[in-house]
Amino acid sequence: MTHQTTCCYCGVGCGIVIKQEQNGRLSLQGDPQHPSNKGMLCSKGMNLHYTVMDQSDRLLYPQMRFNRSMPMQRVSWDAALERTAAVFRTLIQKYGPDSVAFYVSGQCLTEEYYLVNKLIKGFIGSNNIDTNSRLCMSSAVVGYKLTLGEDSVPVCYDDIEEADVFLVEGANPAWCHPILWRRIEAHKAANPTVKIICVDPRRTDTARSSDLHLPIRPGTDIVLNNAIGRLLIENNAVDNEFIVNHADGFTAYREQVMQRSIDEAAELCGIPSEGIYTAARWIARSKGFLSLWTMGLNQSAVGVNKNLSLINLHLITGRIGKPGNGPFSLTGQPNAMGGRETGGLANLLPAHRDVTNAAHRAEMEAFWNSPIQIAAKPGLTATEMIDALSDDRLKAIWIINTNPLVSMPDVNATEKALKKARFVVVQDVSNRADTVQFADVVLPAAAWLEKEGTMTNAERRISYLPKILDAPGEALPDAEIIWRFAQKMGFGASFDYTEAAQVYEEYARITEGTSIDVTGVSYDILKQNRTIQWPYSMNDGADGAAGTKRLFANHQFYTANGRAQIHPVPDENRSEPTDEQFPLVLTTGRIRDQWHTMTKTGRVAKLNQHNPQPFLQIHPADAEVRGIRQGQLVEVQGRRGVVRVKAQLTDDVRPGLCFMPMHWGKMLNSNLNRANNLTNALVDPRSKEPDFKFSAVEVVPY
Ligand code: SF4
């Protein structure tokens, strides 16, 4: 038997065909019918079936304990959920609804995200739900809202073949979005005049296959973007018609970018000024200008300003809403966008509504028939939850399908906070999740292929994922765990679901009339069409169209006055300073064959061959003055902790910069492999996204 589904790793959202043999063995290949990958898969996707067939690490039964010094006991689902409901009810009565929180994941399906949001925001009365998307896309969300009016990615993958200049900034799609990158490479191979500009302090594989690599100093992205903006203005490459009729803020922007000369900008960025001139010249002459970015811009103390400085280049040149043109934030996780659609951040409500908007709250209260008023104050964000656990403002946390003991910044503080928490629920697939050791209740979740639901990829494309396999033991789909818990909390009439399709239909209804209207999308239509790009209302599709490829073709934006907003931004960086004690900058990131905290990819022998151990990349000149040899064990010291790994001497990193992958958690009972021992919990003031890409460190031989 064969089944069509979607890869559960990155936001490219590749279609997969699963073949199930009579003996139960699985094989897979890329789905040639899926428009996002047209049959291709990267190394992670090609090996996904091994993670399903190896069930040695699966959590199989609900477990709980009454004291952390006791071993976990296997219990029934009823016992686990009744105890959890009793603890939540007691804490809420005694300390109020903000004493509990959910921390969820961009791995969750849309239906799961929707249900958790409905439960805590509409029934418990707190907005304390955040997601690991806070660590990933929240700066892009704020950037889009400020400039375009809503969190709406304007472009689609088909724009790749329409573009002739790609500005890839703070991203390494050759490793992290490989199928998208192959499509760009194929387009360039067929059209040699296409230009790729890569902005990255590291010489990544993306940089190697670009026409122009600008290895800027960490934290100087805004300096560079403002300098490019200045050159576009000086060379009459702006679109005056677009600015006059469709955008506000150009005059202030011009004043801002004229404050710094190109030579000054080049000096600050640590690159030759010729590189800036070349980038601006190529953008000015292009017919299609696509910019792509990920964590290098988002994970920053000035992440929103970095986003704004890049989106501004599209707004001053009118390069948006036209084929081959637009800003394109590449989603890290498979359903980070689906989560944002359902209100899966502490400041959001479903369908891009906002908790601070009284009319939006009233709409959702009426729709949900809420027994309480939705709180007007945004809930705790990811890092704020850790602070609140530490000082006992937050008493209980329920962690779903994410591994904050590896992925949070300043992870030693996260570990202390979880130890201190009064009540921790861990809902996960794998016993490899580092959080399990701190749990009071463990709930086994169904994995990929074991539950049905939907996900939205980086180009607003919704895919349906069927249930293909039975979950092992007593593991349940995440959505069912949440609706069963809501029933135990006494909200049964509003959580009386029996299947995920009912949840999707309910969510779709509340999108009616919004910019992300998906009232035309149902499981039946998705099974028939395979995928649909939102918006797709109940009035669409009569002509056979499968959604909306591109937004803003009419240059009507979702802002109050319908005009795009150009936001001039200063080029300061607010990261922690380096000094004599910690003179180097550490940046973190991903490697080609691992995914996040390795609970899945770490079990696949083939994938571990690429880079079997954590490492630190350091420039040979920085290594020499410290007496560090190739392959030597070094201690990386920072203001919050240390790491001990082998040194890789390479001029792929700039002098003064080190790089360490973020994937590894505890190995051999040591937590000295965790890159996030060193990162800091400094966040962007508006997006609350942490500054993972800039931590002050020193490196010494060990
Ligand atoms: Fe999966 Fe992303 Fe690889 Fe596609 S590119 S196969 S979605 S990990």
- Runs in which pLDDT lies below 50 for 5 or more consecutive residues are none
Tell me the number of strands: 28
So what's the CATH class of the largest domain? Alpha Beta
Secondary-structure class: alpha/beta
The spatial strand order of the largest sheet comes to 5-4-18-17-16-6-7
Descriptive account of the structure:
There is one protein chain. A hairpin with a 3-residue loop joins β25 and β26. It contains 25 helices and 28 strands. The model has no long low-confidence stretch (mean pLDDT 95). It has four domains: 52 residues, Phosphorylase Kinase, domain 1; 206 residues, Rossmann fold; 192 residues, Dimethylsulfoxide Reductase, domain 2; 118 residues, Barwin-like endoglucanases (Beta Barrel). Iron/sulfur cluster binds next to α1 and α7. Keywords: 4Fe-4S, FAD, Flavoprotein, Iron, Iron-sulfur, Metal-binding, Molybdenum, Nitrate assimilation, Oxidoreductase. This is Molybdopterin-dependent oxidoreductase.
Using brief descriptors, characterize the structure shown:
Molybdopterin-dependent oxidoreductase; binds iron/sulfur cluster; 702 residues; molybdenum; iron; Rossmann fold; 28 strands; Phosphorylase Kinase, domain 1; 4 domains; Dimethylsulfoxide Reductase, domain 2
In short:
The chain is of the alpha/beta class. The protein has 25 helices and 28 strands.
